[in-house]
Write a structure and sequence with these properties.
Number of strands: 8
Oligomer: single chain
Number of helices: 1
Shape: globular
Length: 151
């Protein structure tokens, strides 16, 4: 009888509590690392989570917010005057959005967000890239990392 109760307890525990590998991974964050190893202080982060916007709320979309700190002046790389967040599922789709500086001692913190992602975010490249508002061209990445899975 004891072994039957123990077996029943194990069965109920397995069914009632999902494995951690199937747990919801939203929200998630990643650290963005500099592409140039000489930029020792430059770092960033990306926060990814579901949002429902509007009144009444729309269907859930994915928001990605990026923050970059201790970045060099964009003009130090040439004809650039800002930074943009760049998110891409390689060979499928990409999104880009402007990042805005906040005035602070020692240089600005750059931040931006995009709220309209409906795709599954698997094997996604997240970057902070140089940009030119005049030509609307993106430059090379300054910070980057990859999201393996965040859903």
């Amino acid at each position: 009888m004891k072994s039957f109760i123990f077996g029943l307890f194990i069965l109920i525990s397995t069914v009632a509590y999902p494995l951690q590998t199937h747990a919801d991974r939203m929200p998630c964050t990643i650290t963005l690392e500099p592409t140039d190893k000489n930029m020792k202080n430059a770092k960033g982060t990306a926060l990814i989570y579901k949002v429902q916007l509007g009144s009444p709320p729309s269907f859930p979309r994915t928001n990605i917010s990026i923050l970059g700190v201790h970045l060099p002046k964009p003009s130090s790389y040439g004809q650039y005057d800002g930074y943009e967040g760049y998110v891409a599922i390689p060979n499928e789709i990409s999104w880009r959005f402007r990042m805005y500086p906040t005035p602070e001692d020692g240089g600005p913190t750059w931040a931006g967000r995009f709220d309209l992602i409906t795709a599954d975010l698997k094997n996604v490249k997240v970057q902070v890239r140089l940009s030119s508002s005049k030509t609307e061209k993106l430059g090379p990445p300054v910070l980057q990392n990859t999201i393996k899975s965040c859903n």
